[in-house]
Amino acid sequence: MKEKIKEKFNNSGIKRLFKSLQLRIFFIICLVGIIPILLMKSSILENYEEQSVIQRGRMLQNQCSNLAFRMGSAVANLNLDISGFKTEMEQLANLYNGRLVVANRDFKIIEDTYGLDTGKLLVSEEVVQCFQGETSLSRGPGSRFVELAIPIEEAVTEEVVGALVVSSETANIMEGKEELGRQVLILQVGMVMAVLLAAFYASIILVRPFSKVTQSLEGISGGFLEDNLSILDYTETQVLSEAYNRMLGRMKVLDDSRQEFVSNVSHELKTPITSMKVLADSLLSQEDVPAELYKEFLQDITQEIERENKIINDLLALVKMDRKASDVNIRSVNINELIELILKRLRPIAAKRNIELVLDSYKPVIAEVDDTKLTLALSNLVENAIKYNNDGGWVHLSINTDHKYFYIKVEDNGIGIPKDDQEHIFERFFRVDKSHSREIGGTGLGLAIARNAVLMHHGVIKVFSEEGVGTTFTVRVPLTYTE
Ligand SMILES: Nc1ncnc2c1ncn2[C@@H]1O[C@H](COP(=O)(O)OP(=O)(O)OP(=O)(O)O)[C@@H](O)[C@H]1O
Ligand SMILES: [Mg+2]
User: Fold this and answer.
1) Burial level of 137, CB count in 10 A (0-12/13-18/19+)?
2) Tens of pLDDT along 323-358?
3) Domain with 270 in it: what CATH number?
4) Helix 13-73 vs helix 171-221: angle between axes, to the nearest 10 degrees?
5) What is the pLDDT of residues 186-216, one digit of tens each?
6) Which residues form the domain of 364?
7) Which residues line ligand 1 (CB under 6 A)?
8) What is the DSSP letter of 424?
9) Which ligand 1 atom is at minimum distance from the Cα of 437?
10) Is residue 229 part of a domain?
11) Cα separations in angstroms, 222 against 111, 214, 259
């Protein structure tokens, strides 16, 4: 059986649905995980380069500021004389694998460790800034150099008399960057693979409980009412399971009551037919049956036919009321007159057993009701009050109203209903004392019909009863009908 469910599940569109859900979860996790990993590389490398350049600049500045200061001290008449610093400049240039250039106040290069540009003019933004007393750090063309421009100030007047421009190759910084890039790439590949793996497992784990729920539901919709759902993997699925099991419980109760109803119906419908068959058979099996006996048996058969007819009519009435409210036929009705009519019809039956039937109409009532259905309900209440009464008893009815509802009370001093049975009397086919009720006659549908009719009008029906003392039914119905 389980294999069959599995096969059904695999073939169904639900499996495809879960596959696509799994895929979506997988992609979302991948997206969220991989994008930062990809962005990580460029930001790490940029940061590395920036920091390295700053560090290089600092180092250059430490050494060369001192040189510039000393050059400033050797100034005479605002004229730069760097003849005493040439060797030191060469040494520094070799140390930093770079070039040192000194320009005088006229922007003329008076010393170049490369020996290329001596005597030429050196005009750049950095040098101009230098003559305003500012030190500046910049990247040379193609980012292959770090360039530092330091002002040379006259020791006493602090007037800028020249500029010392130091440039240092950044080839080793770029090499370091490339190496770091390679390492980051390896790290990235590892991390992306880890994210893919995690996304794959997460998508399976996240979807699994729901596919379990659906599998079980699929199985149950195939008719396995005994199976309960038990998926405790997640709090959510646990709650879902519990809610589902409660619903299943209610469905089982409904299913049971439906089955009971069907078996009751068939039983009730069969009884009169069986009686008729027994009566007819006994007539057929005898010879020379006297005419009186024929008549008597046929009368009995007619009674059974009437009984069968009543059951069928009652069932049809119930089925009609089970349908939606579209079947309601609402109009303005004089309730006092409606009850008078019911009593007129039932009075002869009450009179037969010497039962007093009294109506107290406290107020005239006009209400929007379906008169056929309300008549059905009230007739049954009065019929019951007569049927389950003692000879010589009484039945009192009253009608009253306020601005919103009308109230009908049917009270008798009959046999009463035992406490335990009171909650069941509105159920279909329920009769308090089966044997006694059969003798009195009835199928147990009357109160079910009455209650449905009252509920259809958005009303309330209640019972108060004490065994051996009597029974009171109260009905409350709104004066105006709302859909
Ligand atoms: N006024 C009453 N006094 C005592 N018992 C009552 C009274 N009304 C109803 N009952 C009990 O409730 C049961 C259900 O009533 P209900 O009207 O549904 O069925 P019924 O009268 O047996 O059959 P039906 O009305 O379908 O002909 C009755 O069989 C009876 O036992
Ligand atoms: Mg009845």
Assistant:
1) middle
2) 665 578 899 999 999 999 999 999 999 999 999 999
3) 1.10.287.130
4) 160
5) 999 999 999 999 999 999 888 887 777 777 7
6) 324-478
7) 314, 380, 384-385, 388, 412, 414-417, 425, 430-432, 437, 442-448, 471
8) T
9) 29
10) no
11) 97, 12, 19
